[in-house]
Amino acid sequence: MKVCVVVDTYPGMHALWSGAERMGQRLGEGLSAAGHTVRFLTRPPDAGFARAAGTVCARQGLAGAGWLTRHLPLDAVAMGSVLGQLRRLRPDVVHSFAKDLHFPTLAACGVLGVPLVFTVVDQYLFCPTQTLALPGGQVCDARAGGVCERCFELVEGNIRNAVARRLARRSGAVRAFLELRARLAAWGARRLDAVIVLSEASRKRVLELGVAGERTHRIYLYDVATPTTPAEPFPEPTVVYVGALSAARGADVAVRVMARVAARAPRARLKMVGAVWDDYGRMVCQLPARLGIADRVEFLGALPNAETLDVIRRSRVVLTPLQFPNEFGPMNLVEAMRMGRPVVASRIGATPEFVRDGVDGILAAPDDVEGMAYGVARLLEDRALAEAMGAAARRRTDSLAPEGYLREALKVYEGLLTARGRR
To answer: What is the dihedral of CA 220, 222, 223, 225, to 10 degrees?
Structure first.
């Protein structure tokens, strides 16, 4: 079978990429190892990077307007480029993990009659911020692509000229854009041949967009490495946070949790693995000093995946204080469980589907700093409990072996081809 995997960026070709791109890369590599022909379609490499073997590139005419073209089908150059590449590759199936290339891929597959599979890896289809998080920290309760009037500030932030921002608000252009974005997202989702979701919570949200139930498939596309050698633990009892230093991921909550843990566990340390993107991230880097725990917190920046996994393995507890309904793992939480590490996490999104409170880890409300601190301190103080929860967490991820999700993905592909009379 010939499969084209579409990703916005590709590890080794672009400076920035996320768990979505890594998920797509691993899926493609697994299919290739199983004897299928796989090509990756992505954007041209960043400056200083070369095109990777097995990839083809789609040009963008409006690359500088990425936020706008991600939500509206405006980039004619990208649409033509994707169409040309897929016409040349002639894949049996296209499997997309992309957002920037979402509409060009949707249009090209429609023209060519190629089945399109889309994996939901974040809230892109449901929310212009991709998080469902409101400015005040609450979770948006809109359903089925509702009008996102409460996110005016997000859109206006992408209009750099102050006069243009005022005109956009007064003229109703922002409201009109958000209404159009929501309708297009739902329209596009209903035209996908198959939608792969990573949790039951995500499946429910996709169904609310009007996607037919028989087109949605829950497949855990988490290809996480299984450690084969023991890791030397850090000298001090260590808690690790993995993820960009963002409000949605609760980076400041992690530091505040550590401030409370310090009173009960004087030797405890917090290591934070993740990039600083904005003023919020810089504020988080200054927060330990303000709370009097500067010597307890270490910021490691963004690390290669292998080094990140090593930090997780050497730590005692993994802290995942999400502030938005991540219905897709998250990847670092699943990796921590596979490494046999207990997690203290927010009870939000799909996290309870993966972590059983008191069995694989400890859950607390997203804003319950005291509850998370109690959980972390308890696991640091009770080594036997931490090891028991870590072992349970690892057993919980035994079903995430690559052969399992490859078999399920191929079943989806073959069903689409059979329905179109290509098998």
So the answer is: -130
